Amino acid sequence: MRKSAATTKIWYRLVLVAVFAGILAGLPLISSERKTAAATPTFSADVAPILFKNCGECHRPGALAPMSLLTYESARPWARSIREQVATGQMPPWHATQPRGTFANDRRLTEKERDTLIRWVDAGAPQGNPKDLPPQPAFAEGWQIGQPDLVLSMPKEFEVPATGEIPYQNITVPTNFTEDKWVQAIEVRPGTRAVVHHILVFCREPGVTSAPMPYKIVEPKMQHGWKPFDRLIATTAPGTNAMILQQGQALLIRAGAVLRFQIHYTANGTASKDRSSLGIIFAKRPPVQEIRTSAFANPTFLIAPGDNNHEVDSAIEFTEDSHILGMIPHTHLRGKSWEYRMVYRDGRTETILSVPHYDFNWQTYYVFAKPLAAPKGSRLEATAHYDNSAANKSNPDPTATVRWGDQTWEEMQYTGITYSIDKQSSEAQRP
Predict the structure, then answer these.
(1) Residue 210 — very low, low, confident or very high, per pLDDT cuts 50/70/90?
(2) Alpha-carbon distance 74 to 59, whole Å?
(3) pTM
(4) Is the same domain home to 260 and 409?
């Protein structure tokens, strides 16, 4: 039967409507596909900037990490490992639980950065357009602090054997200072980084039996004959940085001071030699604010064999209004966790540093983004826990009774602290 002209027009319009409806219905799908493709992270555009900023210092040729992550070719084989380490928070290594922004040297990724890396691996770790790749960062191959005014080195090389456990080495290095020196920046530089686990540099000054401190040790009551610590003035270990003070701040090293390099060497299968050094940049003028370093500890503990949660406490009470710039908790292979609490005179208690999973391999100096006020009469309490059981895979000997000692198979409950005294700063600022 023949259709009328009117019927034909209606039919034609319905067909056009259907066609356009189909086209319009397809548009969101096309847009969604394009959006999904655009949202897939690529190494060149999205991942490389994160790795350059957060990982490259260690994950580059010749640095501490066993692999480089600076190119797609070097990073791609490690994609699954990157996902696992990032998802569990093991990398970048950071062990404090305080919120982001608490510490100036916080290495944690943001949620956005972590999500980007995980989605990149889940999408097959695509390279993307190489033209999107940003320039690789320039890493300091020499001194982080710049060219030092003075370099103090070990008197001679230390021969590191290829295998075996190496006792801590304590090597004396005289400063030969004939006058007091104000230090603006200080850095420890291993001679052969591959065999140096960490170095602590202590300073002993003639005629000074202990560093002047704005606090007194109130816990524990020191045993008779216990000697005060030398001042810890510099460290190097996986995760640490050079100390670079702000303009107007400086650290005092007195005339005749003698340095002690406490070095933990680790054999790596190849015999080698090391001659580590300390670099110093002097302040151009006396500071407005003197920065001091000191420590407190509990050397009186005894950890029984098999004890998987032994607690050791220490505490100091501030005798002058002060500010804490940073702290480093230090135990050895049985160290399990740390917590620091500030107890104020009004009874308030604030947890200022919590390290629930301490890692001996990362000797982190936690530097506050804003110096923490420690008013006169306030008390800083430190609690460390230890695992001396067989469940601790790092435990040298779960059958041993453990006491204080320098060696890795012994233990410590030690806190290094960097601080300033408010009175000195205000007096220095007077005209």
Answers:
(1) low
(2) 10
(3) 0.81
(4) yes
